[in-house]
């Protein structure tokens, strides 16, 4: 009798130990933008497994559509909701801000993990001063509303900027804000600092390349600069093998010049189109594959930029789907990783999405030209990456990292407890 019960405790313990040791995924996240300017997209419930198949654990949307937010309930995916520029005027009224938060954020918590409200998109570079003037008050009113509802600890408030807010970005140490925007930006930065919310910037090396393909080496924008293409910053002596990091450090420099270099910078959008107009040099499947694939590889290596080597950049890829109703050049409708039917727009050799279907096959997907398994039915269609811990897409934010450390400490603690109890039993 006694032997049986101690055997039982022993096996329970062993199960417990192995469960504790297999807990590799805390803190590591890939983000993806889920835009829906299209009339042919699958319902949001279909987007959730696609996002999981990528291994993404953060999503940014451009509104607070209840069908989307409901679809993400209990998915454990963290969501940034958006408040369109057209709402900024309404949000000048604190009462309306409060009711907006109640009906668009509070009612979905905690099942849907809304972590942030991105107020307006690239507002300052619209050059519409009356719109810009409404940005900060809207952010403040939304934050006050969150505070009234005691949600300010779980949901933060920020806005997204375009690289156009910089007047100078080359070399990175020369980065500074557009002179006419220094005033409004500084006030927003003070707000970010006060509530400890991140500084979000949309950064597209593609746009830089497209505007000047003769001067800018394609390898540099695709993360693979040759020795003679590396950007050398004469002031800092830093070397940049990719333009995204150069752009990010230009932002860091601009922030430093206005005394805000402590803010956490995150890339709220970055991506590459698989198709474009004839004059959109660089837009191609081949380059999109390289850009997104190399970006994810870089995130896996967990290297920060030369100026902030210890800070892992949080990046939200743009975008989940091709969006057929977006205005503008052809590229705008072709940034998606997936076509509307849920098949990959191209294969870019990331994956190992072991979460969605329990398939943790870790075939190495450095390769890129295999046809991508064409899998439907929720299997990982762009899979092929895989990594030793089954979690290939790392973009750990600083708080993510501390959670990761805590998680490791807990593992060691429980291992100790388990060994101790084993000794007591045996
Ligand atoms: C806004 O103004 C800047 C410089 O004053 C200009 O470079 C930019 O193209 C303008 N943006 C728009 C959307 O008009
Ligand atoms: C996992 O993926 C591999 C490679 O795509 C496939 O051969 C295998 O059948 C899959 N296993 C499961 C359980 O889905």
TrEMBL record:
First-level EC class: hydrolase
Record-stated family: Belongs to the glycosyl hydrolase 17 family.
Region of interest (Disordered), ranges: 357-383
Highest rank taxon of the organism: Eukaryota
GO terms, molecular function: glucan endo-1,3-beta-D-glucosidase activity
Entry keyword annotation includes Signal: yes
EC number: 3.2.1.39
Residue stretches of biased makeup (Gly residues): 364-383
Stretches assigned to coiled coil: none
Residues annotated as transmembrane: none
Keyword Hydrolase included in the entry's annotation: yes
Protein name (record): glucan endo-1,3-beta-D-glucosidase
Catalytic activity reported: Hydrolysis of (1->3)-beta-D-glucosidic linkages in (1->3)-beta-D-glucans
Signal peptide, first to last residue: 1-27
Gene3D superfamilies: Glycosidases
InterPro entries: GH, Glyco_hydro_17, Glyco_hydro_17_plant
Keywords for the protein's UniProt record, in alphabetical order: Glycosidase, Hydrolase, Signal
GO biological process: carbohydrate metabolic process
One Pfam family here: Glyco_hydro_17
